[in-house]
Structure formats: C-alpha cells, structure tokens
Amino acid sequence: MPHTPGSGHVGENTRALSLPEGPVPAERPLRMPVHRATTYAFDTSQEFADVLSGAQDGYSYARIDSPTVDAFAEAVAALEGAGLDTPVRGQSFSSGMGALSTVFMALTEAGAHVVASRSIYGNTYSLLDGLLRRFGVSTDFVDITDLDAVRAAVRPETRVVFTETLSNPTMTVSDLPALAEIAHGAGASLVVDSTFASPAICRPLEFGADVVVHSATKYIGGHSDTTGGVAVAEPALIDRVRAARVDLGPCLAPDEAYMLHRGLETLPLRVARQCESAAAFAAALEGHPAVERVDHPSLASHPQHDLAGKLFDHGRFGGVVTVHPKGGWDAGMAFADRLRVSTIAASLGGTHTLAGHVATTTHRTMNQEELDAAGISSGAVRFSIGLEDPEDLVEDALQALDNG
Ligand SMILES: Cc1ncc(COP(=O)(O)O)c(C=O)c1O
Questions:
Q1: pLDDT tens track for 70-110
Q2: Is beta strand 320-325 parallel, antiparallel or unpaired with respect to 138-142?
Q3: Strands (E), 165-256
Q4: Do 66-265 and 267-402 fold alike per CATH?
Q5: InterPro entries under this entry (predicted)?
Q6: Which residue of 42, 206, 294, 306 is most buried, as measured by CB atoms within 10 A?
Q7: 226 CB near ligand 1 (under 6 Å)
C-alpha cells in the first residue's frame, strides 16, 4: 500500500529505518557497551542547540564527544589521578602522536618556546623540530638529566617543558619533581609522555606534572592490536586540549576505546610481570663477555637507579631492556637475528617479547655522533619484554650471544 501521510502505513524504506532496536537491559551489563553512533537524536531544536553550545551536558556528534571514548579517557584519568586530592580529566585520541600533537597545539602559539629532552621518541622530536617550528614554535633540546641545562634553557616565552618518564632506548629516568619546579618557576607547563612507564609504574601528575600523555597503543592496550592515545590534566587545562582536539580531529574510534578500556583491567598484572621478567633478563645478560652494557633502571649500574626507586611503585623499573653487545653494528644485527623466542618487530608493551636493532629502526635518523651523544651504541638491541616465561627469554638471549 502506498504511503499516505497520517494513514499509519509507511513505505518499505521508512519501515526499514524504524525497526525495533531491542530492550535496554535494566541490569548493569558486566562489559561496557560500545556506542558506535556518530550522531545523536534530540526531541527539540532547543535541546540540540543547548548541547552544541555547552549550555546543557550531552552528546551531539562523535568527533566532539562520544560515550565509549569518554569512558576510556576517564578510566585512564582515574588511574593517573589515583593519588591526587584534586580532580583530573582525560581526553582520548586516535594515536599517541594524535595526543602529543594536540597537546602541543593547545599549549603553544606562534612565538612560543618549548624545552624538550633530546632523548625522546623520534616522531615527537620531528613534530617539535619540524612541523611546529614551521608554525613559529621553537624548541631547545637538552640533556634532561642535566637540571642546570634545563634551567638555562627556559625563558619568558617557554610554554612547555617536555620529557618522557622513561626514555627510549636507554631507559633514562626523568627527575619529575625537579622538572616541575623549573617549569612552574618559568610559568610553563610540564608535559610528560609516560608511555614507557604506564600508571602501573609511575603517575607523573603526583610529582607535579601538568599533563600526562600516553601512546595507549603500547602498555595500556597491551596486546599489539589497537592504536590510540590519551592525555590527562586538571579540568581547565584538559578543556583547552579538548577544544584543540575537536578542531584538529584525531578522535579515537569507539571500538578501539573499548579494547583500550579492556586493556586497563589487566594493566597492573601485565606490567608487574613484564617488569619482573625485564629485571631478571637485564641481570642475566649484564656481565656476559659478549655484552658491553645493559640499560635497565633495576640495575645498580643504571645512572638513575636510585631516582627510579623514589618515583616508581612496587619496585617496578619498566619492561624495556636495551642490550649493547660488543662488536658494533653488525654484531648487534646478528645478535637480533639469532633470537628464536623474541620476535624482531616494532612497538612495545604487548604480550610478545619484541626486539629491534636500535640504530637501523627507532633511531635510524640519528648519525653516529648523535647516537654517541645519546649513549646509544651502534649495536644496541632494544627488547620489550612480554609475558613469556622469563627463563626462556634469558636462555634464548644467552644462546644468541654465545653463538656470535
Ligand atoms: C614514547 C612514545 N610516545 C609516543 C609514541 C607514538 O605513539 P603512536 O604510535 O600510538 O602514535 C610512541 C610510539 O612508539 C612512543 O614510543
């Protein structure tokens, strides 16, 4: 029957778009629902206008805010702010770089200045040294363990002091309380990328940081199957980050938010195990005749061993170990090639142990002089320790060294 308005009959397409959607359960589902909608329906135009203007709380469009995505950000905020008396809020992003670029855009303007550790993730380095410089934001890169150098680098236009809790690949530990004091004395914010630590090891906001950022792709997701990012700060600051995110557009997808939220449930279990195995792995390889040096903050030989003990929880020193074999570049590549339990692959923080020759992968853009300055030998191999039995990882690495 053809559709006549008011007749009660509608055409097949209209019917197809008005199907029953099933009950909303009265019982609380044990798993968080995934809200995939990109847009939300309103009863009145006024309600729609009020939600968009912020006069009324609510959801309108998924790039702006989305329930599953917000739930993930607020879950990370609950973990990062666990020891704080004041509230903190989170924002989710499509990747760690999405989070970092948005935070820098939110906190700087043309003419602004950044002081950054020179030992940071390569794309964060190129974001600061390339893209942001083109927009008039200049960065001085310093040895972040040299607090006098940090003090000397800040100036009236400095908006951000930036570091990583644990740096890649030497596992250098940042003195967060001292850096917060320097940043605040200069009227700047301390922004900390805590990807390598995760809130299961260290919560930088408790030590005076203003914004903590993660590549959730790593320990938070924890299974090498989801890309995402997150930033946490006090409400007024995170509102500025949110406004920049809405304009820039790197929003996290709801299904990814669900996966990352689920990852948080096992974060302490996974990280505790990874840290314990990493410490055993580092201790077993340090002193091997084919090894020049092992970087892991659990070792008494690590320059920030004592500082790590003060900043990190539960005697957890991180899940990444960097091994510097004797014999340089070729020896390092061959060492990685002889591994049978660890897999040669990018990324970190997942269930599988991953290994990579640093000079040809994560730090391939650095020349020998820059590698030397950063304390990275040309043969260095970085291990992200996973959940395998640690004895198997140790035995595998020892055979790879012995057979060199
Ligand atoms: C310390 C650190 N920060 C940020 C990123 C960027 O994260 P994503 O790949 O999720 O954009 C990475 C990636 O390896 C990283 O190691």
A1: 999 999 999 999 999 999 999 999 999 999 999 999 999 99
A2: unpaired
A3: 189-193, 211-215, 229-233
A4: no
A5: Cys/Met-Metab_PyrdxlP-dep_enz, Cys_met_metab_PP, PyrdxlP-dep_Trfase, PyrdxlP-dep_Trfase_major, PyrdxlP-dep_Trfase_small
A6: 294
A7: no
**Residue whose C-alpha is closest to residue 114's, from 144, 146, 94:** 144
Domain ranges (residues) in the chain = 66-265, 267-402
Question: Long-range contacts for 75-80 (Cβ within 8 Å, ≥24 apart)?
Answer: 75/261, 75/264, 76/199, 76/214, 76/216, 76/220, 76/230, 76/232, 76/264, 77/232, 79/199, 79/203, 79/264, 79/267, 80/199, 80/203, 80/204, 80/205, 80/212, 80/232
Q: Is the CB of 390 under 6 A from ligand 1?
A: no
Task: Report the pLDDT averaged over residues 330-343.
Answer: 98
The closest alpha carbon to 257, from 390, 93, 86, 57, belongs to 93
Instruction: Judge contact between 230 and 92, C-beta under 8 A.
Output: yes
Would you name the residues annotated as active-site residues? 63, 121, 193, 218
Q: What digits encode the pLDDT tens for the residues 357-370?
A: 999 998 888 888 88
Topology of domain 267-402 in CATH is Aspartate Aminotransferase, domain 1 (3.90.1150)
Integer Cα distance of 275 and 37 in angstroms: 39
- When pLDDT is averaged across residues 126-146 and rounded to a whole number, the result is 96
Q: What is the mean pLDDT of residues 194-211?
A: 98
For residue 13, give both structure tokens. Answer: 């397409």
